[in-house]
Design goal:
The longest helix is centred in the last third of the chain and has 23 residues, at about 440-464. A hairpin with a 2-residue loop joins strand 5 and strand 6. The strands form 3 sheets. Strands 1, 2, 3, 4, 5, 6 and 7 form a 7-stranded mixed β-sheet that branches. A 6-stranded parallel β-sheet has the order 12-11-10-13-14-15, with helices on both faces. A two-stranded parallel sheet has the order 8-9. It has 15 helices and 15 strands. Helix 7 (about 230-240) crosses helix 10. By secondary structure, it is α/β, with parallel strands linked by helices. It has helices at about 1-5, 25-40, 115-135, 155-160, 170-175, 185-190, 230-240, 265-275, 300-320, 335-345, 360-365, 375-380, 405-420, 425-435, 440-464; strands spanning about 10-15, 45-50, 60-65, 70-75, 80-90, 90-100, 140-145, 180-185, 200, 250-260, 280-285, 325-330, 345-350, 370-375, 400. Residues about 1-5 and about 290-300 have low confidence and may be disordered. It has 2 domains: about 1-205 and about 440-464, Rossmann fold, CATH 3.40.50; about 230-435, Glycogen Phosphorylase B (Rossmann fold), CATH 3.40.50. Bound molecules: adenosine-5'-diphosphate. Adenosine-5'-diphosphate binds near residues 256, 257, 333 and 358.
């Protein structure tokens, strides 16, 4: 036990539905890669298991090849073969599972949003576990990410929903089966529940992938000691999008997000108009989680809502197609996201709830000041410059509590006022935010401790 807690080498296997940059929809992809790299750097053996999606970025996988021996796994009482592929992503060994099942679970041209997502990922979870078993892997830790991999622990009695007995509840099952449950920020852990085995550890960001000093997607690289390059990126983005470049001091406010209710879409919409009223420019890069929605009466409620927002934003986007000061880009675009972080002066994150949130951290690393709602992980990483209850050294952005237009206006107006009227103060804030350590170092150490504790507990339980 002593040797475990004092830094033994652990074998950790992450099972997940996303991994940046090959298969990324949102923050989950960033977290799987960032945490894995940080743990590997600390000397642990880290491997990842992913589905083999047809729409992955195959050019970013090195030494990609299929294994000779298939892995068999059960689904609906039948055995199916899975072809296993291996490759290296960002220096990490990854196993990709390709099911030989007539439903072609991962040949859909998109990651999520299929009506059989539940089946797709329960198949994947079972196959992932079979892969570990048949490959003779004996990991110390199996780290399952999000509901898609909760089925790794499947057993009907434990997975059953507490209130609807005919239903399977993967999140409940995951909690019952796991040794430790984590979430991605301390505040969110408080908000959803407090329990002894539930721990909130704030995510970090991959500071190699998100580094303005080396970022190949930028027009000009820059760092906290020399932020002149930021202005050049602003100019490049404006030219690229056809926005007016007449006033270099005109504040550029941005939002990079999935357009789902969680992200506070009504406030995002409001922010466009309010920013223009305040004399600023606004850029939205917003992706819909359901890119190819087919007309279907059986479509899920969340799909319907996403479709509704997508159409609404398409209308607004058309309205601003040739506007001098606002542009809405309704797509997922990794390279443009990098340029927007670098070019913008402020980034809004008006989430209704936010387990952790990464865009506020990435923004700060690129010197874009966050304007965020005080919830979940935003509350653990963005601290208001005007809040006297917070030590000055931690203050790094603008926050608001109530999720309405008034609440948001207050934060946005204070930000724009300061940007316009305190040029030196703003520059210092930019430099300060760029110097904050958002790397995975601290958080990976917390996971390390937790893994060691969990291994020790499980071994103790096995002995008795
Ligand atoms: P979530 O996981 O809920 O989407 P996070 O803030 O944790 O939110 O992570 C979002 C990640 O996805 C960030 O890396 C962000 O840059 C990226 N992202 C979100 N929307 C887009 C988009 N439309 N285009 C490119 N990248 C995006």
């Amino acid at each position: 036990l002593t040797s475990l807690t004092a830094g033994a080498r652990l074998h950790v296997i992450h099972i997940a539905a996303e991994m940046a940059p090959v298969a990324k929809v949102g923050g989950l992809g960033d977290v799987v890669t960032g945490l894995s790299k940080a743990l590997q750097k600390k000397g642990h053996l880290v491997e990842i298991v992913l589905p083999k999606y047809d729409c992955m970025q195959y050019d970013l996988i090195r030494d990609f090849k299929a294994l000779d021996v298939p892995v068999e796994s059960y689904f609906d009482g039948q055995l199916f073969k899975n072809k296993i592929w291996i490759g290296t992503v960002e220096g990490l060994p990854v196993y990709f599972i390709e099911p030989h099942h007539p439903s072609k679970f991962f040949w859909r041209g998109q990651y999520y949003g299929e009506r059989d997502d539940f089946k797709r990922f329960s198949f994947f979870s079972r196959a992932a576990l079979e892969l570990l078993l048949q490959a003779g892997k004996k990991p110390d830790i199996i780290h399952c990410h999000d509901w898609q991999t909760a089925f790794v622990l499947n057993r009907p009695d434990r997975m059953q929903d507490n209130s609807a007995n005919d239903r399977v509840n993967p999140v409940k099952g995951a909690i019952v089966f796991s040794n430790i449950v984590t979430t991605v920020s301390p505040s969110y852990a408080q908000e959803v529940r407090t329990a002894e085995k539930f721990v909130g550890i704030l995510n970090g960001i991959d500071t190699d992938a998100w580094n303005p000093a080396t970022d190949p997607f930028l027009k000009v690289q820059y760092n906290s000691n020399d932020i002149e390059g930021k202005a050049e990126n602003k100019e490049a983005l404006r030219r690229h999008l056809g926005l007016s470049s007449a006033n270099t001091r005109q504040p550029l406010v941005a939002c990079i997000t999935r357009l789902v209710p969680q992200k506070g879409v009504h406030l995002i919409r409001h922010a466009i108009y309010r920013t223009l009223e305040l004399g600023g420019q606004f850029v939205l890069l917003g992706s819909s989680p359901v890119p190819q929605i087919q007309e279907s009466s059986a479509f899920s409620i969340s799909g319907e809502i996403s479709l509704f927002f997508q159409r609404e934003f398409e209308d607004i986007s058309n309205q601003f197609k040739t506007h001098e000061h606002a542009r809405l880009l309704l797509k997922y675009d990794e390279s443009l996201a990098h340029l927007i972080y670098a070019a913008s002066d402020m980034l809004i994150i008006p989430s209704i709830f936010e387990p952790c949130g990464l865009t506020q951290m990435i923004a700060m690393r690129y010197g874009s000041i966050p304007i965020a709602r005080k919830t979940g992980g935003l509350n653990d990483s963005v601290f208001d410059v005007d809040d006297d209850t917070i030590p000055v050294q931690y203050r790094n952005g603008f926050t608001f509590l109530t999720a309405d237009e008034q609440g948001f206006n207050n934060a946005l107006e204070r930000a724009v006022y300061r940007y316009n009227n305190d040029v030196d103060g703003w520059k210092q804030l930019v430099q300060k935010d760029m110097s904050i350590d958002f790397s995975w170092d601290t958080s990976a150490s917390l996971y390390e401790e937790l893994y060691a504790k969990s291994v020790a507990r499980a071994r103790g339980a096995n002995r008795t």
